[in-house]
């Protein structure tokens, strides 16, 4: 069964460093998403991406965040200058159809620890 | 105001029993979708079930069913015949059209523990 994959599973970085989190969505899916979950808290939407551009973003997704689909398979989240409060689990998801009704399939997550 | 409210931080159930996890939502949009996800201790998010606001029937997927009461704005998840592997966090989520966007909102989750 096709699945969303994410690398690395765990990333440790120093405050102020740039990190890139990588995702490979399900191959025929058209919509891609990033979410984060601070430990013990609820899942929060960051951004959705369709047709090579951002379609929605939340207030959390400020100028230090960016997303890219550099080739036909990868979908990346870049945090330019990490802060302690960026420590969280980051989930990538993808869906075949429109966000309001179609099922989003989540990857296993990348745990980001900022020291 | 919270868009999604899960009032049960923790629930316990005996194996093979049924359990209901509560979810209420708040929206003024007539078109919305409601989702339940399971998050085991390993951390991944697993889609369980979807209910559209215009769906006439309650959604069912195997042992999972969604008790959708539109007038009360509730979308409770019912797990029948609980198994030990059902022990996990369960999140209710909603996607509504807000200002032209479909940004999803998650509840704070309910931790379910299934006892043998």
If you had to describe this structure to a student in words, what would you say it looks like?
The complex is a heterodimer of chains A (115) and B (116). Chain A has 115 residues and is mainly beta. Chain A has no helices and 11 strands. Chain A is globular. In chain B, strand 10 and strand 11 (104-106) form a beta hairpin. In chain B, strands 2, 5, 6, 10, 11 and 12 form a 6-stranded mixed beta sheet that branches. Chain B has a 4-stranded antiparallel beta sheet with strand order 3-9-8-7, with no helix packed on it. Chain B is globular and about 45 Å long. The model of chain B has no long low-confidence stretch (mean pLDDT 92). Chains A and B meet through strand 5, strand 9 and strand 10 of A and strand 5, strand 6, strand 10 and strand 11 of B.
Count of strand segments of chain A: 11
The radius of gyration of chain B is 14 Å
- The low-confidence parts of chain A are none
Would you tell me the structural class of the helices and strands of chain A? mainly beta
The biggest beta sheet of chain B is recorded as: 6 strands, mixed
Structural class of chain B: mainly beta
Number of H- or I-type helical stretches of chain B: 0
What are the SSEs and their pairings?
The complex is a heterodimer of chains A (115) and B (116).
Chain A: E1 5-7, E2 10-13, E3 19-24, E4 31-37, E5 43-50, E6 53-57, E7 65-68, E8 75-79, E9 88-95, E10 105-106, E11 110-114
Parallel strand pairs in A: 2-11
Antiparallel strand pairs in A: 1-3, 3-8, 4-5, 4-9, 5-6, 7-8, 9-10, 9-11
Chain B: E1 4-5, E2 10-14, E3 19-21, E4 24-25, E5 32-39, E6 46-52, E7 60-61, E8 64-69, E9 74-79, E10 88-96, E11 104-106, E12 110-115
